[in-house]
Design goal:
Length: 112
């Protein structure tokens, strides 16, 4: 860009800026500035609290994650054992029913 064009743009920007300044009172701008600083302070405080909470949560999770993993493996193992037991029970029940058909009453004759 030419120097004259740059100067023209700068002057136009300054003129627009001066016009905006006449539209808004200085005390209103100061009030907005103070509110922005207040909000900034609150956001910084909230950010600090959340950072502390995240660190605390990470620490707590590190303490219990081993227990969670161990208990999950234990539950999975117990489920496998119970599935095997119930499979065997169903097989035994089928053999008993084959040998003694009246050993287990059907649903319609069972008393509640």
């Amino acid at each position: 860009m030419e120097e004259r064009e740059k100067q023209s743009i700068k002057e136009a920007s300054e003129e627009v800026s001066r016009e905006f300044k006449t539209l808004i009172k200085a005390e209103d701008l100061n009030s907005l500035k103070q509110l922005q600083y207040l909000i900034l302070g609150r956001l910084q405080d909230s950010n600090a609290v959340l950072s502390h909470f995240n660190e605390y949560s990470e620490h707590c999770f590190a303490e219990v994650s081993g227990d969670f993993s161990r208990n999950a493996r234990l539950l999975k193992s117990m489920k496998g054992d119970l599935d095997y037991i119930f499979q065997k029970l169903r097989g035994m029940k089928a053999k008993i029913l084959a040998t003694y058909p009246d050993a287990f009453p059907d649903e319609s004759t069972r008393s509640t």
